[in-house]
Amino acid sequence: MKKFILPLAVLLLATPAWANVTITVVDEGNGIAAINYAVSGEPNKVRAVALDIQVDAGTIDAISDYMKGEGAGFGIFPASFRDYINVDPATGEVETWDVNDYTPLADPNDPGALGGLGTAGVTIEMGALYYPTGDNSPNAPPNSGTFCKLEVSETCNMSVLENATRGGVVLTDPSVAPTVDLTGATNVTVTVGPGECFPDSYSTYNDWVAMGSPDCWCEPYQCDGDVDGATETFFKYRIYGNDLGAIVANWKRKIDDPDLDPCADIDHKSETFFKYRVYGNDLGIVVGNWKAKDADLPGDCPRPE
Length: 305
Description:
Blueprint: H1 5-13, E1 21-29, E2 32-39, E3 46-55, E4 60-64, H2 78-84, E5 121-127, E6 144-152, E7 156-162, E8 169-171, E9 180-181, E10 188-190, H3 205-210, H4 241-249, H5 280-288
Parallel strand pairs: 1-9
Antiparallel strand pairs: 1-2, 2-6, 3-5, 3-7, 3-8, 4-6, 7-10
């Protein structure tokens, strides 16, 4: 690792410049939003960014998918570097970049920074440090990519603004002042909810999509036989008469049957050569859990198949 105290000082003191940079928010589902960028024009490299990211509902709860340290990305986080990274005074080298608290998030107590994780707004600060230092360096960041990803607590609209107090967007040539386009990063809906709860890593995911992404497959007791999503009788049986009735009503229905209730497909699979969606396995699960109460069931549906 090369010495870099002087280059870092230059980064921290760089004059803000408005760049030919397009910043977008991309909804990835399950409450995850990617903060992406693309650069055009000359110079075509960004050296650092300071961005405010806010939501109009809920909170921003986690940050991920960012690089740490030197190299072809934005792994230098000035405020976090100050607080968590140790530099060997004899060699000028970083002892380790692998520090849990070393993240792009600005300290909420720093001037101009937003509230941080668990609030409706965060400020991120990210810089690039690489050798050779020119725009044509093979180690320079690519002209498009992802700064980081954020996780939100509920469906919301997310917006990104430059934080001018902490530097905004800075090019490798800070004398150039082009435009930052935030159109695709303004009031972008980030979704959280039942429609995204069924993981695409499950072998039954394609069936879930083919059946219209039914919300009930995401309910905590459905895969144990709870077709109607409710308890029954004074005793609050989770698996009881209404669930059995739904199995009977959907018996031998196939995936292309317009009258099929996908909630009655307990095991999330087809059966037999005829590909019945509601058949023996589904009935067996209901019978096996007959009169089960919430306390009798794990309540962790959906489960991987």
